[in-house]
């Protein structure tokens, strides 16, 4: 029996015990007795741990009503009650509600506890988590650091709770794309974990995993694989072959191969993860939906759109059964399906799914959330490809405004916004404006990434295409060759993107009258086309 099954069995036993206690209390005690409130709270906690948040809320609220009647307004148990309800709303991703209850709890704790009390540290941590989930990184950092300062004063240097604190702060820097800072904090976690725990402890595996994730986001895939494999080796030694905790490690390794463009390897690892999930999870579990989605993403990248849709739709069916209609994971699922239709050139279908996603985000997210910016950008891309440039600009500008407010000035998504504008200007034939937008994107990427990062390849490619259209062939060639150098270093041999770049370079040589070179590069492009499932239009240039 694996950890998930054991946990479920434990919670079911706990539920039976607490339910018996609750029935006894209900019969023996007056309706507003504090022990009855405790009983309701215990049941709420079990439901919360089982992921049944509506039931958890029902019992926590019953408990809270009693506490409100029988306790003074500044009693710490009332604060705990507010905090429990806040946690459920956080798990349900209703972040404004979560904050509302956490702030009520905070007012009580602040009055009742000394400034360095451990409960305050836990509480600051909870508020930080909500802000982190909302994408408000500066607020998240503020509260995580308050929590950390209390722990630093109260705990020895290598205490595991300090490691958790470092990890939380690292996660905010990771979300801010400040990867050097994220690594600094995650390495602190690793140092504490190595000293405090045996070499094959699961927490060490988690620590390696987080460092691997940062390297993956930095585009340093060899380093990412190194740390993911360290994590996997620990879990493989400690666990049975079909243990549920092995599935996420297979998924992470699959994600790196997917990012490297090695899709056969990505599929191999995603399918290993999926087989475990199928064995240990109920058929409508959300993690199975994620597993289907991962496989769908690889097929989408391989341009096998019918397979991609098949897996994305399996994922969507699960989400539609188990999630509320406005859940953010449903929105993500709609985006995935919309993107496949976009790649197939079915722009009306793409728009339909992007708008479904957008409606959810508008209902459940704050108006400056980065996901809303991505949503506006997706819709803008559809209008751009349809040739409706005024509509495209309208949505791109909405996206950029949010990103400028919500993100640090060197965030890669800001570069993405400028690249979207550049693509639009290039299609309209306004090459000077396209170049200006590309330069803005490039300057941000220089601040965000190390030289040679895969993100630069797309920007160099766009520079090359714009200079080609402007008939500045030497600059076009210079940028396309920079793009190719990155593609050859970071992608597997004969990757589709290499073929596209060879084709662009061949076209520039043709326009310069270098016909032998043009032929050689087009031949390289065709050799790749023969080995990759793609439309000839994806490799050919005009």
From TrEMBL:
InterPro entries named in the record: Sel1-like, TPR-like_helical_dom_sf, TPR_rpt
UniProt KW Chaperone keyword: no
SUPFAM superfamilies in UniProt: HCP-like (SSF81901), TPR-like (SSF48452)
UniProt repeat feature TPR, residue ranges: 37-70, 79-112, 121-154, 163-196, 205-238, 247-280, 289-322, 331-364, 373-406, 457-490, 499-532
Keywords: Repeat, TPR repeat
Keyword Iron-sulfur: no
Pfam families listed in its UniProt record: TPR_12 (PF13424)
Alphabetical list of PANTHER family matching this protein: NEPHROCYSTIN-3, TETRATRICOPEPTIDE REPEAT PROTEIN (AFU_ORTHOLOGUE AFUA_6G03870)
Protein name: Uncharacterized protein
Native organism: Rotaria sordida
